[in-house]
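Colleagues,

For the teaching module next term, I've prepared a clean inverse folding example: a structure given as C-alpha cells, and then the sequence designed for it. I'd like students to try predicting residues themselves before seeing the answer, so please don't circulate the second half yet.
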C-alpha cells in the first residue's frame, strides 16, 4: 500500500510541476505580449488609442494568469499537507511550505549602475 501511495504521489507531483511551469510561462508570455503590443504601436507611429480594446483584453488575461499562478502556489502548499496526511511526509525532502528563495529570473531593484530608460512622447 505504501508503494502505491508513493507512486501516486510521484505521478501527481510530475503532472503538477509541469502544469505549474506552464502557468508560469503563460504569465510571462502574456506580459511580453502586452509590451509588444504597445512597442509596435509606437514603432508603427499609430495613435495612442489604436488597439486599446485588444490591449485591455490582453491585460485582463495577464491578470488572470497571475491569479492562476497564485492558485498553483496555494495548491502546492495544500499538496504538501496531503502528502503528510497520507503518511508520505518522511519520504520527501522537498516541497515544504516555507518561502521559496528567489530564482535567477526574480525581479530586482534597479541600481545607479543600470542603464537609464529614456521615455519618448509621441504626438
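(Answer key — instructors only)
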Amino acid at each position: 500500500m505504501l508503494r502505491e501511495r508513493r507512486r501516486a504521489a510521484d505521478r501527481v507531483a510530475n503532472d503538477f510541476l509541469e502544469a505549474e511551469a506552464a502557468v508560469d510561462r503563460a504569465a510571462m508570455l502574456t506580459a511580453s505580449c502586452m509590451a509588444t503590443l504597445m512597442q509596435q504601436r509606437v514603432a508603427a507611429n499609430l495613435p495612442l488609442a489604436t488597439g486599446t480594446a485588444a490591449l485591455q483584453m490582453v491585460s485582463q488575461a495577464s491578470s488572470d494568469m497571475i491569479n492562476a499562478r497564485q492558485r498553483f502556489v496555494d495548491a502546492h502548499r495544500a499538496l504538501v499537507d496531503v502528502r503528510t496526511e497520507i503518511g508520505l511526509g518522511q519520504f520527501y525532502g522537498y516541497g515544504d511550505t516555507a518561502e521559496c528563495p528567489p530564482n535567477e529570473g526574480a525581479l530586482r531593484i534597479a541600481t545607479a549602475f543600470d542603464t537609464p530608460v529614456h521615455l519618448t512622447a509621441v504626438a
